């Protein structure tokens, strides 16, 4: 039964089924098709929904079928005289009316319909609400004079061209500093035809183009559009959280690729129309290339600007190009420190790799690492697996740039410039140049390592021939130099050197070490202590640079003892816990660090719920500038899933590292501690957990919980260059990219605007699963669940027999 009272209006060419005004519902409109002109007696109808948009941001300009809905074809007599047209019911209309009256008794015959009054009423409503805009072609029939007179009577103005509408919307978002809406409007703007796009760009002043390019700067746009800004995304997180829409196979954000594409389209059209950009406008383009880790693209842009001319480059542009060329900003290498860490394989032309056996070991290690890392950290301009750190290992490029800056162009060397060059020389493992030519000359800091004892000393630098009391105007260091020293020395596995320099600069210049610098040092200690990094250092006999096993814990204690009011976050506790597991320590259920991590995760869940309800409430109220709320909601959702994945990996590694003593019949850790740990961390332990006991493995499965469903998507093949038998060969690596579907996935929701419950439930039916396997995902999940249930029943059936067999004999 339908409670709403429907009324049918048949007015010549129109038939409408409308609900009462008190209820919001669609209006089914029957319009005569264009094919009916040859047969006046036969009328065909096409039904179009005319329900108003659910959100005020969706205008009629995006819905042409709804925009022309209230402007149907009318005769000249109806428009001029406004006479009441009597309804003429055909056979099909009369039959449809009879069927409707039989189904719904309240449906009655229509009253005479006045087209002119209807048009006047709709135009007045549009001008009042400004929801629908009157299209330029208001009338489909009649001569031009009748159409012009009707537009003058109705007061309808023509719509501006679409390129003007798109760009006006983009400018409105630019005035509000809303980079998310600006990005969406520019997506339609750059998709216009070339001629129309050039015409639109030619009408704009150069200052508007400059402001538009600066607003697309990745440094500014990432804060509002990238929920993972400042967070490292590993390969495992990329697979488990379904981040295919967020990142590409090279580990770069897709957002920066879109920003760079739109920049290039606008700049190309502006240059073809005769426009000239300011030098500062190219900085945003260099940053976009850097955010994609595209060194080759940045070099092409540099050669296009200053390659064939004798023009003196702007120092700001040159500084930004050096940062991109050597990935001197954390955003440029995706906040992943493993991409810029020292790889001993890159030292093959130095004295450390004279033995061919060591080279073979490093090649095999590099091949095995590439099998598990997809294409993260590779050069996207090469068709083979060429890591980015191999493009930065040469000493000549950075030396040439440094001499050009200091001696040729004689630009000023500030602290920012000196830090950039220090990072560039660190990529080439040239720490001696940093010590003698930068730290000593511009900061007055000199470090020396005793070759006999290996002790590292830091002291003031006194030039030769000068008196000890002579004071040279050195650069006053700040916290930027502290952060640079941590990255320079720790990226080359010199943890002790970095710690001694930090302590000396802090005491000598009275600069307290901030907690952010301590956090960076703690993360670098974890990277340098990884098994792959220490193994590669041992292959080239760099045993003195291998950090001790408890290096992370030593830095943690120094941080908590030295830094005042330090507040470690979730990431810092995760680094400490992983370091303890790496040392072979089994975490108990009452571990203090794990308890703090669970408390921080619960706080993040509360923030996520608050962001969801605030976002949904704003959508229902119809407030258009919701970009800050949308950004907060996306960041809270990503952070919650990232913390869950980190805790899940820690639990998995902790149970996998449990090695009970086989000489004992009953081991306390496997009999008591492991079940307690699983019970305490039940939300993060994967369904189907197993751990080792002296008698074998224990497998725990809960059929009521969600099972991880791996879905094979694509199979790739990449070639890795390897040095084998004194020749270079290309070894093929077959890689599979799959998704693991679960409630923690970061894919889009189906009904995000209807209710906050689908956003909080986390069910598989509320997610837009990958398109290749979206239809059979739930069926596969149910099939896996039934299989696990059968296995559980079979094990329970065999359990009495096993107990009877293992039961000791009665004496």
Characterise this structure.
- The chain is an alpha+beta fold.
- Among the domains are: 7-154, no CATH class; 160-332; 592-700, no CATH class.
- It contains 30 helices and ten strands.
- β9 and β10 form a beta hairpin.
- α25 packs antiparallel against α26 (592-621).
- Residues 1-89, 103-116, 126-157, 772-777 and 801-811 have low confidence and may be disordered.
Which strands sit side by side, in order, in the main sheet?
1-2-3-4
Largest sheet: 4 strands, antiparallel
Total count of strands:
10
Strand content: 5-15%
* Shape annotation: globular
Q: Counting H and I runs of at least 4 residues, what is the number of helices?
A: 30
Which stretches are poorly predicted, pLDDT < 50 over at least 5 residues? 1-89, 103-116, 126-157, 772-777, 801-811
Structural classification: alpha+beta
Radius of gyration: 34 Å
Q: What is the share of helical residues?
A: 40-55%
Mean pLDDT: 76
Distance, first to last CA: 78 Å
Organism: Apiospora kogelbergensis
Protein name: ATPase expression protein 2, mitochondrial
Pfam families: ATP13
Subcellular location: Mitochondrion
């Amino acid at each position: 039964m339908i409670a709403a009272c429907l009324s049918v209006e048949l007015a010549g060419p129109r038939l409408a089924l409308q609900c009462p005004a008190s209820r919001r519902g669609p209006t089914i409109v029957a319009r005569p098709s264009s094919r009916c002109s040859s047969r006046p007696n036969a009328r065909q109808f096409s039904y179009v929904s005319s329900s108003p948009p659910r959100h005020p941001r969706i205008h009629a300009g995006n819905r042409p079928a709804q925009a022309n809905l209230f402007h149907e074809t009318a005769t000249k007599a109806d428009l001029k005289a406004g006479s009441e047209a009597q309804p003429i019911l055909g056979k099909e209309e009369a039959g449809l009316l009879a069927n409707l009256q039989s189904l719904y008794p309240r449906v009655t015959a229509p009253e005479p319909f006045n087209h002119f009054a209807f048009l006047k009423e709709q135009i007045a409503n549009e001008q009042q609400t400004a929801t629908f805009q009157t299209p330029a072609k208001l009338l489909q029939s009649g001569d031009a004079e009748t159409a012009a007179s009707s537009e003058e009577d109705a007061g309808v103005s023509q719509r501006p061209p679409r390129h003007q509408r798109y760009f006006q919307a983009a400018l409105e978002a630019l005035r509000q500093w809303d980079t998310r809406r600006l990005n969406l409007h520019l997506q339609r703007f750059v998709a216009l035809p070339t001629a129309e796009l050039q015409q639109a760009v030619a009408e704009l002043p150069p200052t508007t183009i400059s402001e538009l390019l600066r607003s697309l700067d990745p440094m500014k746009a990432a804060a509002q559009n990238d929920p993972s800004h400042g967070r490292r995304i590993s390969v495992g997180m990329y697979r488990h959280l379904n981040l295919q829409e967020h990142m590409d196979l090279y580990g770069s954000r897709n957002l920066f690729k879109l920003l760079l594409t739109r920049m290039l389209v606008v700049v190309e059209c502006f240059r073809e129309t005769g426009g000239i950009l300011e030098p500062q406008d190219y900085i945003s383009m260099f940053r976009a290339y850097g955010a994609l880790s595209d060194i080759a693209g940045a070099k092409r842009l540099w050669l296009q600007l200053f390659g064939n001319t004798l023009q003196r480059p702007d120092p700001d542009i040159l500084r930004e190009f050096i940062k991109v060329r050597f990935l001197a900003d954390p955003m440029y290498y995706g906040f992943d420190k493993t991409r810029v860490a020292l790889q001993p394989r890159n030292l093959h032309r130095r004295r450390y790799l004279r033995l061919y056996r060591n080279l073979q070991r490093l090649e095999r290690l590099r091949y095995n690492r590439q099998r598990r890392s997809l294409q993260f950290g590779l050069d996207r301009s090469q068709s083979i697996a060429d890591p980015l750190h191999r493009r930065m290992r040469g000493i000549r490029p950075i030396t040439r740039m440094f001499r050009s800056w200091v001696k040729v162009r004689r630009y000023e060397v500030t602290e920012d410039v000196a830090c950039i060059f220090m990072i560039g020389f660190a990529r080439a493992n040239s720490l001696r140049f940093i010590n003698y030519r930068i730290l000593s000359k511009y900061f007055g800091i000199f470090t020396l390592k005793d070759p006999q004892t290996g002790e590292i000393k830091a002291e003031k630098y006194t030039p030769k021939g000068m008196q000890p009391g002579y004071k040279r105007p050195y650069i006053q260091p700040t916290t930027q130099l502290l952060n640079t020293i941590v990255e320079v020395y720790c990226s080359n596995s010199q943890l002790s050197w970095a710690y001694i320099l930090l302590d000396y600069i802090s005491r000598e210049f009275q600069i307290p070490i901030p907690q952010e610098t301590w956090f960076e040092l703690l993360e670098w200690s974890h990277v340098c202590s990884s098994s792959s990094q220490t193994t590669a250092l041992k292959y080239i006999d760099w045993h003195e640079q291998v950090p001790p096993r408890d290096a992370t814990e030593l830095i943690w204690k120094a941080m908590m003892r030295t830094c005042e009011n330090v507040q470690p976050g979730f990431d810092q506790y995760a680094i400490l816990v992983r370091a303890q597991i790496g040392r072979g320590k089994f975490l108990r259920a009452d571990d203090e660090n794990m308890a703090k991590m669970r408390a921080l995760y619960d706080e993040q869940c509360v923030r996520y719920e608050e962001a969801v309800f605030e976002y949904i409430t704003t959508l229902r109220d119809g407030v258009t500038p919701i970009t800050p709320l949308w950004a907060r909601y996306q960041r809270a959702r990503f952070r919650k899933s990232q913390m869950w994945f980190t805790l899940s990996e820690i639990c998995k590694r902790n149970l996998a590292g449990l090695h009970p003593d086989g000489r004992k019949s009953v081991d306390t850790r496997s009999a008591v501690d492991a079940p307690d740990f699983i019970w305490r961390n039940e939300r993060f332990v994967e369904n189907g957990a197993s751990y080792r006991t002296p008698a074998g493995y224990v497998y725990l499965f809960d059929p009521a919980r969600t099972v991880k469903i791996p879905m094979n998507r694509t199979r790739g093949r990449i070639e890795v260059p390897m040095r084998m038998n004194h020749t270079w060969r290309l070894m093929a690596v077959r890689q599979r990219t799959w998704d693991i579907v679960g409630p923690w996935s970061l894919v889009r929701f189906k009904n995000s605007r209807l209710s906050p419950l689908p956003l909080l439930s986390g069910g598989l039916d509320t997610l837009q699963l990958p398109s290749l396997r979206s239809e059979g995902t739930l069926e596969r999940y149910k099939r896996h669940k039934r299989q696990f249930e059968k296995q559980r029943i079979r094990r329970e059936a065999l359990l009495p027999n096993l107990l009877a067999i293992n039961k000791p004999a009665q004496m």
